[in-house]
Design a protein that fits this description.
With 185 residues, this protein is of the alpha/beta class. 32% of the residues lie in helices and 8% in strands. It contains 7 helices and 3 strands. It has helices spanning 2-5, 40-46, 77-86, 103-117, 130-133, 150-162, 179-184; strands at 30-34, 121-126, 167-170. It has a 3-stranded parallel sheet. Helix 3 crosses helix 6 (150-162). The two termini are 15 Å apart. The model is unreliable at 1-9 and 130-140 (pLDDT under 50).
């Protein structure tokens, strides 16, 4: 990955539909727990590596078996909307079910626990934001709509609820590090 990823900083558009069910790979030290879907081309590039663990799940609208479906324990759409609303997204909790549903959250949570069960540490990627680029990557960014997508806000909220420590990096972090060695240990 190192040689092929050292390119210009990623840009969020044009986005493509992503289809990724998440995966846990044994022997990894870290896993991607949250990633901004607007960087779909970068995501495709990163996930070409078969030995990359990720709890992230992306269901394209062309997948009627998963897209628009809801959590098996009951719809979580209102809760997910509320969390996004509180982070500054324009996602009013009274708007009803999410178009893409909330099954993704159930699948994300399942993959999260699989990766954590293997002792892997979560890594949250956030959007490249002007005011974050100047800060030390070790200090936490403001977890709001400026750096996280709507789904990411819920994922980070859940990680914090579980009191799971996680690392965080801007999406262009890969340019400065050997991602394979960071994920493999």
């Amino acid at each position: 990955l190192v040689g092929t990823l050292r390119t210009a900083p990623p840009t969020p558009f044009p986005a493509r539909a992503i289809n990724f069910p998440g995966r846990m790979v044994r022997g990894q030290v870290m896993f991607i727990a949250s990633f901004p879907g607007i960087y779909s081309r970068l995501w495709e590039h990163l996930t070409k590596s078969a030995h990359l663990s990720s709890s992230c799940v992306f269901f394209p609208s062309s997948d009627p078996a998963r897209y628009g479906k809801h959590h098996s324990a009951g719809c979580k759409c209102s809760e997910l909307r509320r969390i996004a609303w509180e982070a500054g997204h324009d996602d009013d909790p009274s708007q009803g079910p999410l178009e893409h549903g909330c099954l993704w959250f159930e699948e994300w949570e399942r993959k999260l626990h699989e990766c954590l069960g293997q002792g892997q540490r979560p890594l949250v990627f956030y959007k490249n934001c002007r005011h974050w680029k100047k800060t030390d990557h070790r200090s936490p960014p403001k977890w709001d709509k400026e750096g996280l997508g709507k789904s990411q806000v819920a994922e980070v909220h859940f990680l914090k609820q579980l009191r799971v420590p996680f690392d965080h990096r801007p999406v262009d972090w890969y340019q400065h590090f050997d991602l394979d060695s960071r994920l493999d240990g």
